[in-house]
Amino acid sequence: MAIRSPDRSRRSTGSTAREPAVEERYPWLASLKVLLDRPLTSYQLVLGVTALLLSLGLVMVLSASSVTSLTTENNSYAIFAKQAVWVAVGLPTAWLVSRLPVRLIRGFAWPGLLVSIALIGLTYVPTLGVSVNGNQNWLALGPLTIQPSEVAKLAIVLWSADVYARKDRLLEDWRHLLVPVMPVTLLVAMLVVGQQDLGTALVLFAIILGTLWVVGAPMRLFVGAMLAAVGVVAFLASTDRERVERITTFLDPFSDLQGGGWQAAHGFFALASGQFFGVGIGASRQKWGTLPAAHTDFIFAVIGEELGLFGTLVVLSLFGLLAFTGFRIAMRTTEPFVRYAAAGITVWLLAQALINLGMVLGFLPVIGIPLPLVSYGGSALLPTLVSLGMLLAFAGTEPGAKAALRARRRHRGRRIGASLSAIRVRR
User: Fold this and answer.
1) What strand order describes the sheet that includes 129-132?
2) Which of 23, 102, 219, 424 is at 20 to 30 A from 9, Cα to Cα?
3) How many CB atoms are located within 10 Å of the residue 48 CB?
4) pLDDT band at residue 17, thresholds of 50, 70 and 90?
5) Cα–Cα distance between 100 and 336 in angstroms, integer?
């Protein structure tokens, strides 16, 4: 884009010279613009970021869990093997979801919400609910133990997107912005809090606040909802002695190193010892029993120790790129449901990542939130992969994307056919 004011000054002196365009002065900007304008850019970015984060997660779960696996199950690969099974289940599921039409994905909104609420309710049944680390938020279904609140995150995103898409022309009225989304989300959050899981409730509040921002809620309404959510979280945190201890020690965990500050302080030890390039994959010292939840909530600390500042910056960059891509899909689509769902998924994953990173870096209390795609846990990984499959489906609604995907699939089909023909000829 040319800068006009210098041109006018030159014309007034009789000069015909012009100011070089931005693309001429910085050719890489022109190349970046061409790249971003391609119809499949969003699709490829979602694929690439997901593959990189998932691969990094598998490597770090193997490294961070090896000691725990050896001491608890006499097999250094036990926890990694479970995570690999969830990946093997989640990837085909995400691929299948990415091929579904948007109208079919939207059809899961109400059933998904009702099923997730029912599953959370079943955790209150003594014979079905399972307590882990004091949280009654797990459900035993035969040989599987799942965390229904992880499914509820995706269900809330889809359901709120469906509701707001139906009310798209009524969203100027603040009542339509709040009802029924806010009461239902609050109900689900309270059911989760009843399980002693404040971290997941905090993510649910973040999802709905982000969705309000996306749909264009007035600033006073957005600020009011945010203050109300903060007030509810603060009240709930004050009702539990362990939560109060975590909040009072997170600013200075070394003041209670042998008590409430133990986990946060050893997370700092891990990050500090990594320096710039880390001590090397597998060489972490904190995973040898001193850092609790090294392969789950505090896996970012192990990344900082083994891969150093460089590794942590790579993780931050990948989540930043995922956020950019998700909001890009939301902005480029013409379908209200796709816009709200893509933005909701992005807000969910970004909020959860920021809460986890803030917890490990000492900006937030330790509240037990996994890092999406990286931390161990199938109950969290599977809904995350499904949501990314949905993002791929939504990316296919961008201008020119459907035609480009069809052309690419036809080309791939011809190549496979040619390869099979060549094999037959050789035989």
Assistant:
1) 129-132, 135-141, 144-146
2) 23
3) 14
4) low
5) 18
Distance separating the N- and C-terminal Cα atoms of the chain: 60
Long-range pairs for 325-334 at CB < 8 Å and ≥24 separation?
A: 325/42, 325/45, 325/46, 325/49, 325/391, 325/395, 326/46, 326/350, 326/391, 328/42, 329/42, 329/46, 329/391, 329/394, 329/395, 329/398, 330/214, 332/42, 332/398, 332/399, 333/394, 333/397, 333/398, 334/397
What whole-number distance in Å separates Cα of residue 46 and Cα of residue 274?
29
Structure tokens belonging to residue 328: 């890009």
Predicted pLDDT at 2: 39
178 contacts 203 by C-beta, under 8 angstroms: no
Quick one: pLDDT at residue 406? 75
Q: Is residue 400 part of a domain?
A: no
CA distances from 142 to 86, 93, 124 (A): 17, 21, 17
Is there a contact between 373 and 54 (Cβ–Cβ < 8 Å)?
yes
Range of the domain at 250: 41-395
For residue 108, tell me if it sits in a domain: yes
7 is a domain residue: no
Specify the number of domains making up the chain: 1
Whether the predicted model's global pTM rises above the 0.85 cut:
yes
- Please give the helix or strand (H or E) that residue 325 lies within, else none: helix 299-332
Q: Residue 79 has which token pair?
A: 């926890």
User: Which letter does DSSP use for residue 364 in this model?
Assistant: S
Which of helix, strand or coil describes residue 32? helix
Report the 10 Å Cβ neighbour count for 258. Answer: 7
406, containing H or E segment = helix 401-426
Other CB atoms within a 10 A radius of the CB of residue 124 amount to: 13
Which one has a higher pLDDT value, 211 or 315? 315
Q: What are phi and psi of 144, to 5 degrees?
A: -95, 145
Is 33 a domain residue?
no
Whether the predicted pLDDT of 127 surpasses 90? no
Per the structure block, which two tokens stand in for 216? 């264009």
